Amino acid sequence: MIQFLLNQELRSEHALDPNLTVLNYLREHVGKSGTKEGCASGDCGACTVVVGELQTDDAGREHIRYRSLNSCLTFVSSLHGKQLISVEDLKHQGELHSVQKAMVECHGSQCGFCTPGFVMSLFALQKNSDAPDHAKAHEALAGNLCRCTGYRPILAAAEQSCCAKQPDQFDAREAETIARLKAIAPTDIGELNSGDKRCLVPLTVADLADLYDAYPQARLLAGGTDLALEVTQFHRTLPVMIYVGNVAEMKRIETFEDRIEIGAATALSDCYEALNAEYPDFGELLHRFASLQIRNQGTLGGNIGNASPIGDSPPLLIALGAQVVLCKGETRRTLNLEDYFIDYKVTARQESEFIEKIIVPRASVEQLFRAYKVSKRLDDDISAVCAAFNLRVENGVITDARMAFGGMAAIPKRAAHCEAVLLGQPFNNAVVERACAALAEDFTPLSDFRASKEYRLLSAQNLLRKYFIELQTPHIETRVTAYV
């Protein structure tokens, strides 16, 4: 059984189909049809809901963290122990919520189909903002698409609702909601079981290891932003899933003198602060990693485990010399991330083995790390080419070179020939040009709807040139650039 709050209503579910998304649960099982399906792939934001989760701050104070999610990509099992808020829950005692009023007063709704999603993103923004911030508003709304081109009044609604924020019914009930969430906090393995399909929800790494050993055919579910597409887009059935999002040990970020250890189930939005503090370019790339709804849900371990050749984080992590800790039963092994990827969607992971955490070396002053993403649009788009460069230059000579690319091969991969040309050479234009030519020996990219092979190779070469130029003239630096 799993338990969660639907606003303030306790829901206990056991026999639901684990393949059921929160979107369809709301619309088909509880009659809340305000949440809309626009794309069923996490691109449009029409299905945005907000999930509240009990948190404890550094001072030991308990509070509820509200986050926007794409309900079309969220399986119901991930709600275990949390609070789900949909657009119907905002109106209170016959009065619209302040974000709804702002949308009305600023004329932010046109055809209205996307409006519930915008309202929920604004609600999450208001809950997480103490003052109006133009950049935060854009970030919060980047995952919501309005085909009626109503962005200006919606941004005005964001400013109005955040600037004049007033306590609402959720603030008034916070103590009560905290008590109710503590009362349903999971204490044992949860489960949804429809007879022929099941999803198990462990709470510890040890439980996860035991379950995965017992069900090696199970699909591991973290954020589900990619796995859910198999259900919503390809109409496949997932007979057995194991949801790892309630394993607290795999959601920790620990900083040591020489490294950062990030649990594999840590949401990308939670990774931002730690990675941005060490590597600003990594932080910039995370801002362009899909939408806020996806970053609130997708995990660093999932982005690696998915083994996509166009995943944004692996090239950066490979260039930084990151490692993964793999767990199977009580056995753990540490593997260089570059050795984890073998072929397209093929990894070094063994049966019943899972990524427990990612180890990222801390930055040093000698490193010259930069990252660049080439995509057709700035926000919420997949890379055509992603490049990460990490050089050490001492007395004008390159003493270490790590360069990794995504979108250039069947796996995220280092540019070995390019690195060999650079190593031990002076860091000048002539050497860089030879290194650019060597990229043609490292990669034979494919053509697809995102880019041609010629465009990809030329882009990779130009990004290396850009990297060199920016290091010579840092005042013209523009990081994580998009080329249209």
Tell me what you see in this structure.
It contains 18 helices and 20 strands. It is globular and about 70 Å long. The mean pLDDT is 95. It has a 5-stranded mixed β-sheet with strand order 2-1-5-3-4. It starts with a strand and ends in a 12-residue tail after the last helix. It folds into 3 domains: 20-184, [2Fe-2S]-binding domain (DNA polymerase, domain 1), CATH 1.10.150; 249-361, Uridine Diphospho-n-acetylenolpyruvylglucosamine Reductase, domain 3 (2-Layer Sandwich); 369-472, Enolase-like, domain 1. It is of the alpha+beta class and 484 residues long. A hairpin with a 2-residue loop joins strand 12 (323-328) and strand 13 (331-336). It has helices spanning 22-29, 98-105, 115-127, 134-141, 151-163, 169-172, 174-183, 205-214, 227-232, 268-278, 280-287, 292-297, 300-305, 313-319, 337-340, 416-422, 429-442, 453-472; strands at 2-6, 9-13, 48-56, 62-70, 83-85, 190-193, 198-201, 219-221, 240-243, 253-255, 259-263, 323-328, 331-336, 341-343, 346-347, 354-361, 367-374, 385-394, 397-406, 413-414.
